[in-house]
Design a protein that fits this description.
The longest helix is centred in the first third of the chain and has 17 residues, at 58-74. The chain is of the alpha/beta class and 448 residues long. The model is unreliable at 1-34 (pLDDT under 50). The chain folds into 2 domains: 10-164 and 330-399, Periplasmic binding protein-like II (D-Maltodextrin-Binding Protein, domain 2, 3-Layer(aba) Sandwich), CATH 3.40.190.10; 166-328 and 404-445, D-Maltodextrin-Binding Protein, domain 2. Helices cover 40% and strands 13% of the residues. Helix 2 links the parallel strand 1 and strand 2 (78-84).
Length: 448
């Protein structure tokens, strides 16, 4: 989900940071932590810089504004300047770190963490702070998978403001109109495809057709991973520091990608075209089984409350594959910059972002799920906004585990997505496409 970016005054930032005479309180090495927080002067003056992961507009901006408001109530003479990373957060951080531009709070994601910490190393370990000031932030309070994903070489570098994974959305009306009983939580992929075949109704155009199944599996690498790992496949190994690409040679990976391609190219229960992006035509009421990320689900609600197609829908667990289910963990996460000049006050801001108050702002406004387990099983589960079956989301988040990670992940993901798009379009065969992925990923593995 992409929102417009909001940029602040770079020139002002550079001039301000040059004027500061306070020495750095953190070393430049990965995992180096500053002195833990102590009693603070709440009248001090400063300006903190927060590099926001992705966008800072719409409901996300509302949530971030609420976090900053709480912080400035505690530190009225400390201002917070937010810089939206857009689609190039890592690239912006590389530039800022290289020029020693002040950064205090850094945005990241689990799949990007290796690229962060093996590259510009913009983060410092959170553990010393959390150990000495655990009133708000406690590592053990969070879903295990996201903590694992935000840990690199034994050090925890960030925690989420919100998390997401792959979820199924069901159009209950389309399924019931065909006289099909609603599936049980332990349904299988064969049962899902049987429903998809029975619901699919082809019309003059793909956009007007009723589709049984839809996923834009070529949008990001983790979309297809649920099916591949669900079948026991491993396209890239090991999970940390990828050293081998085997998309074309791992049998279950090859077979699963062929199966995904066949859903559109041969079985005709999913469109080849990706009209509607990650939602397809689900929001228009023309998809029975849609697979999308947790935060994308709310766009269905928005469409219906703004005059769009009206139909009953809800979330359901992913169907089980041969080896079970795989839920990839995703998150928008934040940590302490290694070149913050005011680590103790930055920690206070970070508590407002990734602590319970910040995660509550984020799930109510930005519609991600929280990673704090008491929130996930409490206020989030009981939230009255659609979808109703938040239990399916909660269980998926608690089961979610990290994707493979590499210092070259940014380029790997781009290369994989580009080739999967050609496979979906049918311009290359599955085997040829996966061989191309292996060549490109292997080349990237060789880069340091």
């Amino acid at each position: 989900m992409i929102c417009p970016t909001h940029m602040t005054r770079r020139a002002h930032l550079a001039a301000f940071t040059t004027a500061l005479a306070t020495p750095l309180l953190a070393a430049c090495g990965a995992g180096t932590a500053t002195e833990a927080p102590r009693a603070l002067d709440r009248t001090q003056r400063d300006e903190l810089t927060w590099v926001v992961w992705s966008s800072d507009g719409g409901t996300r901006k509302e949530a971030y504004d609420a976090m900053v408001k709480r912080f400035t109530e505690q530190f009225p003479s400390v201002t917070v300047t937010r810089i939206a990373g857009g689609g190039e957060t890592l690239e912006k951080l590389i530039t800022m770190m290289a020029s020693d531009t002040r950064v205090d709070v850094v945005g990241t994601r689990p799949d990007f963490l290796a690229a962060y910490m093996e590259g510009p190393k913009p983060l410092q370990s959170m553990s010393p702070f959390a150990k000495k000031d655990s009133a708000v932030i406690k590592e053990k309070d969070h879903a295990e998978g996201v903590v694992e994903g935000l840990t690199w070489k034994g050090a925890l570098y960030a925690l989420p403001v919100g998390v997401y994974t792959n979820n199924v959305a069901l159009n209950l009306d389309l399924i019931e109109q065909k006289g099909i009983p609603l599936p049980k939580p332990d349904w299988t992929i064969d049962q899902a495809l049987d429903i998809a075949r029975r619901v699919t109704t082809r019309k003059e155009t793909d956009d007007d057709s009723i589709w049984g199944f839809y996923q834009m599996y070529n949008a990001v690498t983790h979309f297809g991973y649920s099916w591949i790992r669900g079948n026991g496949g491993e396209p890239m190994t090991p999970n940390d520091n990828i050293s081998k690409s085997q998309w074309a040679t791992d049998p279950e990976t090859l077979n699963t990608v062929q199966w995904l391609s066949d859903l559109a190219q041969k079985q005709g229960i999913m469109p080849v075209k990706t009209t509607g992006g990650v939602w397809g035509t689900f929001r228009e009421g023309r998809v029975a089984i849609g697979v999308m990320e947790t935060n994308n689900l709310y766009n269905v609600v928005q469409a219906q409350t703004t005059g769009g197609a009206q139909f009953r829908w809800d979330v359901h667990p992913l169907p089980t594959m041969k080896k079970g289910r795989y839920q990839p963990i995703g998150a928008f996460a934040y940590g302490l910059s290694r070149n913050t000049k005011n680590p103790d006050v930055t920690w206070e801001l970070l508590k407002q972002i990734v602590g319970p108050s910040g995660q509550t702002d984020w799930f109510r406004l930005a519609k991600f799920a929280p990673s704090i387990k008491t929130l996930l099983n409490g206020a989030y589960l009981q939230d009255k906004d659609p979808p109703a079956n938040k239990k399916a989301i909660v269980e998926a988040i608690l089961a979610a585990r990290p994707m493979p990670r590499s210092n070259q992940w940014v380029e790997m993901d781009k290369a994989i997505v580009a080739v999967l798009t050609t496979i979906r379009e049918g311009t290359v065969s599955v085997r040829e496409g996966l061989q191309d992925i292996d060549r490109k990923v292997t080349t990237l593995i060789g880069k340091k």
